[in-house]
Amino acid sequence: MTMNVLLVRYSPYWAAPVLDRDDVKLYVVHERTPQGLGAEALARFERVYYVSSFDALEELSAVAADLISEDVAIDKVMSSNEFSQYAAAHLAHLLGADEPSASVVLATRDKRLMKHHARRAGLHTARTRSVPDPAALVDAGDEALAELESAVGYPAVVKPANGWGTVSTTVAHDRDALRSALRDFRYAPELRSQQLLVEEFIDGEEFHVDAVWRDGEPWIFCVSRYVTPPLRLREGAGPGLSVLLDEEDHADLYAEVRELHRRLNEQLGLTRGPTHLEFFRERGTGRLVFSEIASRLGGLTVAQLVGAGVGVDEREIAAHEMLDGELSQLPLRRCRFRYVGMLNIIPDRSGRVTRVPAREDLLAHDHVLDVSVGPGVGAEVVLGQSSASVCVMVVYGADSEDDLLKTGAELARDHPVEVE
Fold first, then answer.
1. Which is it for the CA torsion 192, 198, 199, 200, positive or negative?
2. CB of 353 within 8 A of CB of 347?
3. Which uninterrupted H or E stretch holds 81?
4. Using CA atoms, how far apart are residues 237 and 219, in angstroms rounded to an integer?
5. Cα(120)–Cα(330) distance, rounded to whole angstroms?
6. Eight-class DSSP state of 82
7. 0.90 exceeded by the pTM?
8. Phi/psi of residue 49, each to 5°?
9. CATH 3.40.50.20: does it fit domain 3-100?
10. What is the pLDDT of residues 155-198, one digit of tens each?
11. Counting Cβ atoms within 10 Å, is residue 318 exposed (0-12), middle (13-18) or buried (19+)?
12. Residue 393's closest CA among 369, 420, 419?
């Protein structure tokens, strides 16, 4: 049976699992740019629609109207990152596709709502306050700021309500810094909403959980620990490294997180598809504190990290699930290494790239499983800006966590990214 799949925002990386399938006809909605899509990409699609923005409801609705009036029945709507999730949910609703759900997308894009649902599911969260109008709060004076301080304490984390990762996130340590952060908040260009969330800073280890679900049960479930928490990484502290934890060595953690995740999914109404969840293990108490969840695959090379651990790239698993495949059809297998890591090799300072390690040199290392090279020679790298600080992503393995950390340090030392 052939399925009609609508891709919302074309990316060869994210769309790779469906591009060459004989049982799929592809339709695409893409943002209008001066370059447009290349001839090679266009040749793969039944129809391409351009819109000025994925926030343009009338233009998106017109896409749905054209497909319906031409008797094109869209079976699945596919979106893999933040920029197009709302658009995908709107189109799925108009086209009668089962996923993604608008309510699930909203609850997994807006950090205020996801924490609201997490608390209702019985999960611990940081203390939070919504700031829909930052300027008005600052103009209200010290009394309003004092109330905010009392609600969340210091340090206070100030972030976009609809952001992702640590983009445009800052930490305030006192009232002057909080006032400045709210008054002069710097929004990344991709951010449309300018509503903010201020929350309590949680001190502790930080983890991410990557899973693909069907009927409320995980097909795969991987818990990884950030060696350096993302906020500290933005400040230049420590290696950009995640460690996919072996479940046998961390059985209690896996069991607790799996149960919490199921409860949250039930509260959200999320029953299928990929998720990327983050949580803290609070220093001192040891309790697990929910941070955020996304109804999509993890960014950077998380899909390859998970793939190295379970034997199939997570992009392939998510696409197979979306297309109503069965888990038994996937050739899942354990990695030859008990531990797998994802390392981002970056320079020690901002500047223009003068040297990037060769992919083939890294792949020649006995423990390296996959390599993705970002900015090349001549590119400008600005540390502290997550999208501009991704240089060389290495997925590699070892038989213990200690050996993994040691190997990661050796890889970063022996294959540096150099700048001037």
1. positive
2. yes
3. none
4. 35
5. 35
6. G
7. yes
8. -115, 135
9. yes
10. 999 999 887 777 778 899 999 999 999 998 887 777 778 899 99
11. buried
12. 369
Q: Is residue 216 within 8 Å of residue 266, measured between CB atoms?
A: yes
CATH class as words, domain 204-419 = alpha beta
Question: Can you give the residue ranges of every domain in the chain?
Answer: 3-100, 127-200, 204-419
CB atoms < 10 A from the CB of 49, how many? 20
CATH 3.20.20.60 is held by the domain 127-200: no
pLDDT digits (tens, 9 = 90+) for 76-102: 999 978 889 999 999 999 999 999 999
Q: How many degrees, rounded to 5, is the angle at CA 271 between CA 266 and CA 277?
A: 75
- H-run or E-run covering 276: strand 273-282
Q: Give ∠ CA 302-126-303 in degrees, rounded to 5.
A: 5
- The reply to whether 204-419 shares the fold of 127-200 is no
383: Cβ–Cβ under 8 A, 6 or more apart, which residues?
Answer: 236, 346, 347, 349, 350, 389
